[in-house]
Design goal:
The protein is α+β, with helices and mostly antiparallel strands. The protein is globular, with a radius of gyration of 27 Å.
Length: 627
């Protein structure tokens, strides 16, 4: 039987863990209602989570035979963990704190749900507090998100019908609306049910469960076998666990996933699990035996992969204890990267230095604690530096040629700029007459297999289409590694030939301060090269929202608390990348020398008189073989 896979998404302190406990308790899955402040909640079962009172890792819980819940982190530093869970959800509960209203992180969550087309129920929590007005909160939700967010405790059939043409037609003909058509409208994101209550007081929880069961339906299953990996973790015995959703077919113990065999299938609910022999489509499970699975991988659909958009914005150097050798430490961080792919571990062979890209200060503390708990090793981190990116201004063609004696490959790549936030796209439009299909596939593999860096600061490149426009192999002398060399060199050559643009990470923010401080805050945001708008003013407090570079906003929260005498609050959300406001200054400060980067050459290697010779990037076009 298919179950509805639903997840709770919220900004920090909205009461997400409390709502999870309330749903578990109300459904009979647990007998004791756990509390965050009592450190006994069912799903925050890692010692790190209970000590800090925050959710760090997503967890599964079986509510009943109809609903399986995935609890996700609410803190922005762990939003990548939350995003990984989106790929397997049939429905989402977007949780709003009635006292805080719509925060910047809530807006980000709404956009993610929209991007991934996930049917959504809005639950407004903490309505037991004084001066909570459901009508005003609903109006704000409709203005900010969608006019089709309806209070399902009082919505009339006429209101529901107005959200969709099919519903309206049915209502006009029959003066009624079928459950089936309402379910369909919700599945197509034409209607967003909204409910009000208090998770702590168990108010509105029974109605929430009823609404999920009655109006939300599991996603369609595929005919052929398909399974999506949404998480990698390890159990207390350090067994590597792969968390899956079965999209089609049946998965059985000893089946192969890719080239690896499933040893055990587990159904988790919190810390506890039950071993089963098979899992049918529409359900989630956890398997052992896989060593090469990765979050986002889809078995049975080789062309598909989930598109993750949330990533770290700060680079930290890892400070190791003197007794720990670097290769062992690198192995530890590669294992962590397996579970937390957003941390992006890099290693400098020259400096013997490990660096990681993280979301912020809280994440460094969690990783420190995780390494201590799991490996018994004390590490620390240097100061966080901005994780810049690079793109190009206009199209350019790069050439890579690799021809030492008895080797041969030449690749031409066209680099085309794409809109901000597009990421990298790799394509080949060559005919097989120009270059055999196998070689073309190999070039695309080499384009995807590593992080390619730019020539301004040595930061990763993004927001461009990289197209294979020409290539040549030799019947006798070409080996696979030759195309790797020529492909890498072609990218670097193109970047050196073109004009690069530096991109910097941006925060979106919500700031609430006493009215007397609003002028100071607006002035500060302007100085930080940000933009802001005044959202509202109520009860002596004003709320601002806007965007600002991460580099200028870094420690502003401390300053805000001082001049507002502790009354100011601020929430930050990562809002992607934009053109760097001080590119020349940053490039000069970093001092990257692309010509001196021997690990990423833009030059090519040609052959004459039985010997290979290096041609500088400026002269490659004079030597290239494909004209």
């Amino acid at each position: 039987m298919e179950t509805l896979i639903t997840g709770i998404l919220a900004h920090v302190d909205a009461g997400k863990t409390t709502l999870s406990e309330a749903l578990l308790f109300q459904s009979g899955a647990i007998r004791k209602f756990g509390r965050v402040d009592s450190k006994d909640s069912f799903l925050d079962n890692f010692s790190i989570e209970r000590e800090r009172g925050i959710t760090v890792f997503s967890k599964e819980a079986i509510l009943n035979d109809k609903i399986t819940l995935i609890d996700t982190p609410g803190h922005v530093d762990f939003s990548a963990e939350m995003e990984r869970s989106l790929q397997v959800l049939d429905a989402a509960i977007l949780l709003i704190n009635a006292g805080d209203g719509i925060q910047s992180h809530t807006k980000t969550l709404w956009q993610l749900l929209k991007k991934h087309k996930i049917p959504t129920l809005v639950f407004v929590n903490k309505m037991d507090m004084p001066d909570r007005n459901p009508a005003l909160i609903l109006e704000e939700l409709q203005n900010q998100f969608s006019g089709n967010i309806l209070d399902f405790s009082i919505a009339t059939k006429e209101e529901i019908a107005s959200c969709d043409e099919i519903l309206l037609e049915e209502y006009l003909e029959t003066n009624d609306i079928s459950i089936f058509n309402i379910q369909k409208a919700i599945s197509n994101r034409k209607i967003f049910p909204c409910l009000f209550g208090s998770a702590l007081k168990l108010e509105g929880i029974e109605n929430l469960l009823k609404t999920l069961e009655e109006y939300f339906v599991p996603g369609q299953v595929k005919n052929q076998f398909s399974a999506t990996v949404y998480k990698i973790s390890r159990d207390k015995q350090n067994n590597r666990l792969t968390h899956l959703k079965i999209n089609g077919g049946i998965l059985k113990v000893k089946d192969n996933l890719g080239e690896e065999k499933v040893n055990e299938i587990r159904l988790y609910s919190g810390e506890k699990f039950e071993s089963v022999k098979e899992v049918k489509a529409g359900n989630i499970c956890t398997v052992t035996g896989l060593k090469n699975s990765k979050a986002g991988m889809i078995f049975g659909e080789s062309e598909n992969q989930f598109d993750f958009s949330i990533e770290g914005v700060l680079i930290y150097s890892v400070i190791l204890p003197p007794t720990l050798d670097v290769p062992k430490a690198l192995g530890i961080f590669r294992e962590l990267e397996d579970e937390l792919p957003e941390i992006k571990v890099t290693f400098s062979e020259e400096n013997k230095e490990i660096k990681v890209v993280l979301m912020g200060e809280i994440q460094t503390q969690i990783i420190q604690q995780l390494v201590k708990n799991r490996y018994g090793i004390d590490i620390s981190f240097g100061d966080g530096k901005i994780a810049y990116k690079e793109t190009i201004e206009s199209p350019v063609i790069g050439v890579g040629h690799y021809e030492p004696l008895r080797h041969y490959a030449e690749v031409h790549l066209q680099l085309n700029p794409l809109p901000l936030g597009s990421g990298l796209h790799f394509v080949s439009k060559l005919s097989v007459d120009e270059l055999d299909t196998n070689w073309q596939r190999l070039i695309l593999t080499h384009l995807k297999e590593k992080t390619h860096i730019g020539v301004l600061t040595g930061s990763p490149i993004t927001d461009m289409e990289i197209k294979v426009v020409a290539g040549r192999a030799h019947l006798k002398h070409t080996e696979g590694g030759d195309f790797r060399q020529s492909t890498y060199r072609a990218i670097r050559h193109g970047l050196m030939m073109g004009k690069s643009i530096l991109l910097e990470p941006i925060y979106s923010f919500n700031i609430s301060v006493p009215d007397l401080c609003i002028g100071r805050v607006m002035n500060d945001i302007e100085k930080m090269k940000g933009t802001c708008t005044l959202d509202n003013s109520k009860d002596g407090f004003s709320t601002l929202s806007g965007k600002v570079p991460v580099s200028t906003m870094k420690n502003y929260i401390n300053e805000l608390r001082v001049f507002t005498k502790g009354q100011g609050t601020m929430t930050l959300t990562h809002a992607g990348y934009e053109k760097c406001h001080n590119q020349e200054e940053v490039v000069a400060e970093i001092g990257y020398n692309p010509n001196g980067d021997l690990e990423n050459p833009a030059s090519s290697v040609f052959c004459a008189k039985g010997a290979g010779f290096v041609v500088p990037w400026e002269e490659v076009n004079h030597y290239k073989h494909i004209k």
